[in-house]
Specification:
Blueprint lengths: L5 E7 L7 H11 L6 E7 L1 H4 L6 H17 L7 E5 L5 H10 L4 H5 L2 H9 L6 H15 L5 E2 L6 H18 L7 E2 L35 H9 L16 H14 L3 H7 L5 H28 L1 H30 L6
Helix pairs in contact: 3-12, 4-7, 4-13, 7-8, 9-12, 10-12
C-alpha cells in the first residue's frame, strides 16, 4: 500500500517486439489502472538474459518497449515505468529469496521444462531460478496484486509461498500478493497457427501483428492468415482460424460475436480478412505515430528513464533494507 492505493506490479520482457496480443491482452487494460492502483511496470531485462542476447539489440529493444508503454497510454507521471536492471534491489532480493526457496519447488515449474526443451544448449542456472527473480520483482514493491495469465499463475503461487515462508520466520515483512482479477484481456492466437498464442518471439513473421507494423504490413498479414475450407464467418471449435479473427475484430470494435457473424453473413473470407486488417491498422495507427514521435525525443525518454528509476529505487530500497535487517546483515552506515 502506497498512500491510499494498493500496489500493482507487472512487466514485459525486453525481447522480441510487442504484438497485438500483448496490447489487447494486457497493455490496453493497464492504461486504466493508474487511478485505482499505484502501478509499477518494469521492462524486465534481467529476465531476458536467460537466453543469449545481442547486447546492442537488447538495449534497443528495452528502450523501444519502455517507449511503447508510453505510446500505448501509460502516463509516466502516474505509473512507474523503469528498467529492471536499473534497480539493483531486484537482484539483491532474488539472492536472499533463493535461500528461502526449495529445489523441489523449482523442479516443478513447467516453464523451466518448456524453456529447457527450446534451449537445450543453454540450460543455465538463471533459467532454473527465474521464478525466484520474478518473486523478487513482485515482493520488492510490496505488490498487493499482479495481473497474470494462466501460464504465470504457477509462478505467482510460488511467490506467495516464498512470502508466507519468510513472514512465518521473520514476522510481517512481505505483502502476500493476489492475482489481479480485473477485466480479462482478449486472448489472441497466432495468425498462422491458431492453436497457439500470438508470440513476440515467433519465427514466422506472418504469425504476429507487431505494434510497430505499418498499415500495408498489417493488411498483408491478415490476408495471409490461416482459415479453412468451410467458407462461413462463424465462431466455432471447428474453425479456429476464423474464430481467432472474429475475436480480434470483436476486441477492436467492441462488437459481439453474434453481431460480427450477422455483419459478414453471406460474405467471403477475403472481405472479412480485409475488414479485420483495416480495423486493426486503424486501432494501432495513433499508437505507432506516437511511438515514432517519442523515439525521436531522446531527451524526454532519457528523463523518464532517470526519474522513474529513482522512484523505483526509493520504494525497493525500503523493502530491501527491512529484509536485510531481518536476515542479520550489518546495518549500512
Amino acid at each position: 500500500m502506497i498512500g491510499d492505493k494498493k500496489v500493482l506490479f507487472s512487466g514485459m520482457q525486453a525481447t522480441g517486439s510487442l504484438t497485438l496480443g500483448n496490447y489487447l491482452g494486457a497493455l490496453q487494460n493497464w492504461v486504466n489502472l493508474a487511478d485505482e492502483y499505484e502501478c509499477f511496470y518494469s521492462v524486465v531485462d534481467l529476465h531476458s538474459i536467460t537466453v543469449r542476447q545481442d547486447p546492442a539489440e537488447l538495449r534497443t529493444k528495452a528502450r523501444n518497449l519502455l517507449t511503447l508503454y508510453i505510446a500505448a497510454g501509460l502516463d509516466p507521471k502516474k505509473n512507474c515505468l523503469y528498467y529492471q536492471s536499473h534497480v539493483s534491489g531486484h537482484a539483491e532480493l532474488a539472492w536472499i529469496l533463493n535461500c528461502f526457496t526449495y529445489m523441489g519447488e523449482l523442479n516443478r515449474m513447467t516453464q523451466f521444462k518448456d524453456k529447457s526443451a527450446k534451449h537445450a544448449d543453454n540450460i543455465n542456472a538463471g533459467l532454473f531460478t527465474y521464478p525466484v527473480l520474478m518473486a523478487a520483482d513482485i515482493l520488492l514493491y510490496q505488490a498487493d496484486v499482479v495481473p497474470v495469465g494462466k501460464d504465470q499463475l504457477q509462478h505467482l503461487e510460488l511467490t506467495r509461498d516464498i512470502a508466507q515462508r519468510f513472514n512465518s520466520i521473520y514476522g510481517d515483512v512481505f505483502t502476500v500478493p493476489e492475482p489481479y482479477l480485473g477485466k480479462a484481456g482478449a486472448k489472441i492466437m497466432s495468425l498462422q497457427d491458431p492453436s497457439k498464442k500470438m508470440s513476440k518471439s515467433d519465427e514466422n513473421p506472418n504469425a504476429s501483428i507487431y505494434l510497430t507494423d505499418d498499415t500495408d504490413t498489417i493488411i498483408r498479414k491478415f490476408k495471409r492468415a490461416v482459415t479453412d475450407s468451410v467458407g462461413v464467418v462463424k465462431h466455432s471449435e471447428e474453425q479456429p482460424g476464423i474464430s481467432n479473427l472474429i475475436d480480434i475484430y470483436s476486441a477492436c470494435t467492441g462488437k459481439s460475436v453474434e453481431e460480427i457473424e450477422k455483419e459478414f453473413d453471406g460474405k467471403g473470407y477475403g472481405d472479412f480478412k480485409l475488414a479485420v486488417g483495416e480495423t486493426v491498422a486503424d486501432l494501432l495507427k495513433p499508437l505507432n505515430e506516437r511511438f515514432n514521435e517519442l523515439s525521436k525525443d531522446k531527451e524526454y525518454i532519457d528523463g523518464i528513464i532517470k526519474e522513474n528509476a529513482e522512484k523505483a529505487q526509493y520504494y525497493s530500497t525500503k523493502t530491501l533494507r527491512k529484509v536485510q535487517k531481518k536476515v542479520g546483515f550489518p546495518v549500512r552506515p
